[in-house]
Write a structure and sequence with these properties.
About 90% of the residues lie in helices and about 0% in strands. The chain has about 100 residues and is mainly alpha-helical. The longest helix is centred in the first third of the chain and has 29 residues.
């Protein structure tokens, strides 16, 4: 990836930082949205965002486009762990009650 897009090492580090930052922030957002609107529609939206971001990432031509697409991927991918933990919590709390 570094050679095909001619990215500097600092740009690659920025990609990792932005991905992890977006992933952590999006989990907070998806947790509250899934509590308000339900788990299924929110996880479908998050997966569609992640798929769209991955498709756009594959066709990116420069560093800025790659960064924007990876942020879209992490915003979509943040829904999976957040909603997965919420579903697990819901299923375990029903059995213990």
């Amino acid at each position: 990836m570094v050679l095909s897009l001619w990215l500097l090492a600092a740009t690659v580090k920025l990609l990792v930082i932005m991905y992890l930052l977006g992933l952590s922030v999006s989990q907070l957002i998806y947790g509250s949205l899934s509590g308000k609107y339900g788990r299924k529609p929110i996880i479908i939206i998050s997966l569609l965002l992640a798929v769209l971001g991955n498709i756009l990432t594959a066709g990116s031509n420069d560093a800025f486009q790659l960064l924007a697409c990876r942020v879209l991927v992490c915003l979509g991918a943040g829904g999976c762990p957040a909603i997965g933990r919420a579903v697990l919590r819901d299923s375990c709390s029903d059995k213990n009650s």
